Amino acid sequence: MNNDPVSDMIIQLKNAQMAGRLLVTVSFSNFKLAIAELLKQEGYLKSITKKGKKVKKFLELELASGAGAKIITDVKRISKPSRRMYHRAAEVKPVRQGYGLAVYSTPNGVLTDKAARAAKVGGEILFQLY
Asked: Taking the CB of the first residue and of the last residue of the chain, which one, N or C, has fewer CB atoms within 10 A?
């Protein structure tokens, strides 16, 4: 049974990056798709492919590689099913002096810490990535 699908997805991405693999397959959900699109926009993923039919849908994520690609060295899950963490707009800070990335679930959708500060919105901090 999968209790925390977001955590499973980000750990699979980190482990694949460390093992030198380029493709990661995760089960499909709209929330995971939104997170994957955000990671693609930030340069951590090269492509996202939705495959399967009806109940058996999954996402095939291709990690970015080559010169200039951002590499996932570590992830930290902040808000968990057992303990949700929320930040107000004033509490949204850069991760590792701006070299990392924090992902927030806000009323405006899934946003990075930089986009949340620009939009002056807070929300649930999902994870940090660096």
From this structure: N
